[in-house]
């Protein structure tokens, strides 16, 4: 599939989707506390989307059952909200949300501390969010996907953590997943050149231990093989003449 460039009108629709994603993520963040279940977070998000009349992107996608992915501690991505999953002090929970507005997608994720967390977990959240910012800062016309990946990887490995290789970011637009793939690792100067009008979701997944992941028997939940904690931050970003424009804030 070729990369689809977006018009400014299309980017405005994606920004509308992105703003809904941001609102839902901030609402969910405010509900994260010891004793809450990941299903409580799901119900909060679903109720707000219903109020807004906005369609969730994940529910029904290849049979995925929920509007959010909620991935706790060593879960990397695609954790399924469950009333049995009770958050406790010291946990971290990654919350990923996507929506469609007027046929265009927005997709973003945050990782949220549950109460007080230990210093290594706090560093993991900080480094992962910084790595996303570094990837976004590398975005401009003429830069390459390798520049973006190298920027993310540099921050992650500089912090002593590992970039997950088995999942990558993606182009996004009238479909949630479009070309190109956007790895969170790479070599500066390599790979496809970015052009104004491209829109990509950059989404570093970072493990405190080794980079290897495995998918659980539910067919969705990806976990760090070594059981280490894992964080995930994501933004949908448009490439403009002057650099990156974040559509999910
Ligand atoms: Co995504």
Q: Approximately how much helix is present in the residues?
A: 25-40%
Spell out which ligands are present: cobalt (II) ion
Provide the residue-averaged pLDDT: 98
- What is the fourth-level CATH superfamily? Creatinase/methionine aminopeptidase superfamily
Write the layout of secondary structure elements.
Layout: H1 8-31, H2 38-52, E1 55-56, E2 68-72, E3 75-77, E4 92-101, E5 104-113, H3 119-137, H4 145-158, E6 162-163, E7 169-171, E8 178-182, E9 199-202, E10 205-207, E11 213-215, E12 222-224, E13 230-232, E14 235-240, E15 243-246
Antiparallel strand pairs: 1-4, 2-4, 3-12, 4-5, 6-10, 7-8, 7-9, 9-14, 10-13, 11-12, 14-15
Helix pairs in contact: 1-2, 3-4
Bound molecules: cobalt (II) ion.
Cobalt (II) ion binds at residues 107, 170, 201, 203, 234.
Overview of the molecule:
This protein has 249 residues and is an alpha+beta fold. It has one domain (8-246): Creatine Amidinohydrolase (Alpha-Beta Complex). The chain is 29% helix and 27% strand. The chain contains four helices and 15 strands. The chain has helices at residues 8-31, 38-52, 119-137, 145-158, and strands at residues 55-56, 68-72, 75-77, 92-101, 104-113, 162-163, 169-171, 178-182, 199-202, 205-207, 213-215, 222-224, 230-232, 235-240, 243-246. A five-stranded antiparallel sheet has the order 8-7-9-14-15. Cobalt (II) ion binds at residues 107, 170, 201, 203, 234.
């Amino acid at each position: 599939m070729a990369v689809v460039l977006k018009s400014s009108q299309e980017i405005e629709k994606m920004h509308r989707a992105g703003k809904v994603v941001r609102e839902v993520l901030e609402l969910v963040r405010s509900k994260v506390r010891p004793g809450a279940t990941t299903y409580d977070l799901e119900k909060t998000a679903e109720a707000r989307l219903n109020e807004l009349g906005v369609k969730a992107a994940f529910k029904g996608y290849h049979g995925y059952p929920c509007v959010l992915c909620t991935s706790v501690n060593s879960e990397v991505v695609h954790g399924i909200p469950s009333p049995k999953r009770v958050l406790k002090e010291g946990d971290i929970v990654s919350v990923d949300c996507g929506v469609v507005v007027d046929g265009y997608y927005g997709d973003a994720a945050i990782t949220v501390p549950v109460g007080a967390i230990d210093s290594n977990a706090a560093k993991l959240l900080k480094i992962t969010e910084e790595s996303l910012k570094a990837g976004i800062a590398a975005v401009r016309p003429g830069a390459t996907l390798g520049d973006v990946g190298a920027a993310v990887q540099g921050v992650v490995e500089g912090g002593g953590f590992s970039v997950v290789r088995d999942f990558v970011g993606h182009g996004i637009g009238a479909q949630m997943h479009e070309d190109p793939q956007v790895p969170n690792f790479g070599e500066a100067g390599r790979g496809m050149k970015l052009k104004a009008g491209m829109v990509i979701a950059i989404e570093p997944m970072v493990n405190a231990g080794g980079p290897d992941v495995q998918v659980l028997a539910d067919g969705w939940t990806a976990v760090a093989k070594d059981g280490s904690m894992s964080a995930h931050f994501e933004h949908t970003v448009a490439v403009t003449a002057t650099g990156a424009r974040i559509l999910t804030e």
